[in-house]
Write a structure and sequence with these properties.
single chain; 141 residues; alpha+beta; 3-stranded antiparallel β-sheet; 4 helices; binds FE2/S2 (inorganic) cluster
């Protein structure tokens, strides 16, 4: 029921961890399942994402989608990173079971929250980016 790519990214997640003094950081959660995802971005002066790391307290699909999402945004400009939607992450993972689609939404929301944080701090406008609905803040270790 899970694709090989999902199992690979779950068993061997890429870019796990934190970035010290990140250009942007975003934390999101799913109220229903209680899973939480935090994304850190390191962005250079040309608005290119040099590095992206994540911490996910959540299910296997959430971990696999965070891992894939980090790989997809690295090397993109902040504007290009808007193309990394939950659908794009799912496609890159060769799909997710229908009951796990909401997990991939967390990845998109976490990227957007981190981009929003960057945009606010640097007075940058990223087209199509909306203020995150709820940033659950800094109450996660
Ligand atoms: Fe909550 Fe997957 S079950 S993110």
């Amino acid at each position: 029921m899970y694709s090989e790519k999902v199992i690979d990214h779950f068993s061997n997640p890429r870019n796990v961890g934190e970035i010290e003094n990140p250009s942007g950081v975003g934390t999101v959660g799913n109220a229903k399942c209680g899973d939480i995802m935090r994304m850190y971005l390191d962005i250079d002066n040309n608005e290119v994402i040099r590095s992206c790391k994540f911490k996910t307290f959540g299910c296997g699909a959430a971990i696999a989608t965070s891992s894939m999402a980090t790989e997809l945004v690295i090397g993109k400009t902040v504007q290009e990173a808007m193309s990394v939607t939950n659908q794009a992450v799912m496609d890159a993972l060769d799909g997710l079971p229908p009951v796990k689609v909401h997990c991939s939404l967390l990845a998109e929301e976490a990227i957007h929250a981190a981009l929003w944080d960057y945009a606010q701090k640097n007075h940058v406008v990223i087209e199509g980016l909306e203020e995150p609905k709820k940033d659950i803040g800094h109450d996660v270790g």
